[in-house]
Amino acid sequence: MSFEMMFVLSLLLAMLAGLLFEVARPDMVIFSVLVILLLSGVLTVDEALSGFSNEGMLTVALLFIVAGAVQKNGLVDQLMQKWLQNSNTYTESMVRFFVPTSAFSAFLNNTPIVVTFTPIIKKWCEDRGIAPSKFLIPLSYATILGGTITLMGTSTNLVVHGLLLDFGLEGFSFFTLAVVGIPAAVIGLIYLFTIGNKLLPDHKGFSRKMVEDSKEYMAEMQVTRAFGYLNRSVRQAGLRDLKGLYLIEIIRGDERISPVKSTTLIQVGDRLIFTGLISTIADLQKKKGLQLETGTYIGLDELRDGSTSLVDAVVSDQSSLLSKSIKQAQFRSRYDAGVIAVHRHHERIRSKVGDIVLKPGDSLLLLAGTDFVKKHQRSNDFFVVSPLDTPATLNQSTTKGWFSIIVLLAMIITVTLGWLSMFKAMALAVMVFWLAKIITPGEARDYVHFNVLLLIASALGIGVAIRKTGLAEWIADGLLGLAEPLGLMAILFTVYILTNVFTELITNSAAAVIMLPIGIEMARALSLEPMGFAVVIAIAASASFITPIGYQTNLIVYGPGGYTFSDYVKVGLPLSLLVMVTSVLIIYHVWF
């Protein structure tokens, strides 16, 4: 092993550790490694920037715009709501909802599908006394399964396609992956409707949180001079035996009183930190002399006149808010909204609201103006999963909605028949959307997730370093040495498992970029068709079911569903094994 190979390998290990321990946003971690490779001379400027001109990466950018344009008018959402309303039984509802959801995710971006349908599912469940936790993980998994069916189903497929073109290979056709994706999706959905459904948690009985559309939030209230129980005990003030609410800490100047005893005296200026149901927190504000700290100039009372709304938002794994406290992030001035409370997967956060350091998956209960959802529903910082009081504002132009769907179908046909490449067809679709005034240039810019593109482009540059230094060949030889005596099937399982582990621990696109050069080298060494290895890597990089951090859609439903990390392992591990076995067996017989 040469010094350059050791250097690149050490950087890769450091990058994996940085992503795993969330030292910074994933795109910044990977971009930093790319800069180090450039400054150290391992990569030339052209090689480092090659990812920014990669066809797959640029196609992903257009995919964001096309998916945003199709979903802008809310036609898909309206059709799904009507479709779901006609179902009554539990099993029928799952089938009616998740089969078409998987079909939609084969042609649209998974993330906005899950963001849009999460509040729809929650409301439907609440109306029928069903725990939303039984439906939200399946929602995420169904979109992931659907995304493996087509070339545009997920950004990972497009990244692998772009890399194949860079290698001088043919690349995927529109339905290349469908040979594997459709059987895997069918088997996966059957599992979710049967065994997986029994493994899903039922949080309806836990303080009836889901029935009340509430999770255990953190909230802060300040004691003013108007409080009628100053210098009297917590019990005398009626703050000990509150239904669904618990006083966990009192902050008095620089002093923190925790645990809070029933005999602790309440003083003016005290900051009371509560954890519990938001409905009870709202009721508590009615006590004279207790002021809810929202970090903004608007209050809960204004909900009555319709000038404000309660909004539930989930912090993104790509958010610029990560590793900052709410106060440091200047949340109020940036978004003109106040954070009433924070929920973090059953974890009790012992801090005032303004001092809470945000993490991916945190649920924020926001008090905001009625235009907040419209302004920030495409924010990279958080996913707006439900406006709790007012529905999201949608452009109800049915004509434009159908026109955008027709353009999407026309694009799919031109790619399937080979008339245009995916990149050219998407570029044409974007131009048609703009000329037909379906979207404006400003909206097109907002639809693009530039941090995701930076991550992909940077990862592609690192992939060049892995190939250039010979590290890909060295790793491929090592893996072949272990698996080759057991046969080709064992080699395919090894590649799948390694790719899938990377996906669960870091990000899907980075996993694909790291593993594809290794897979190509293994195919070359075995004198086999590289397309089979590319399909294995594309499917494995997308099939993230075991952790909430491996795929954005898993993270979106993490907080709203009230899930724990172990819920994903319990439900997702059998699904992951089913998809792996199905995929490897089909790929083995089709491509080899």
TrEMBL record:
Keywords: Membrane, Repeat, Transmembrane, Transmembrane helix, Transport. GO terms for biological process: potassium ion transport. It is a multi-pass membrane protein. Residues 206-290, 298-382 form the RCK C-terminal domain. InterPro entries: Cit_transptr-like_dom (IPR004680), DASS-Related_Transporters (IPR051679), Na/sul_symport_CS (IPR031312), RCK_C (IPR006037), RCK_C_sf (IPR036721). It holds the Pfam family CitMHS. GO terms for molecular function: monoatomic cation transmembrane transporter activity. It is found in: Membrane. The chain crosses the membrane at residues 28-45, 57-75, 95-118, 139-160, 172-194, 402-435, 447-466, 478-499, 505-526, 533-551, 571-591. One of its GO terms (cellular component) is plasma membrane. This is SLC13 family permease. It comes from Lentibacillus salicampi.
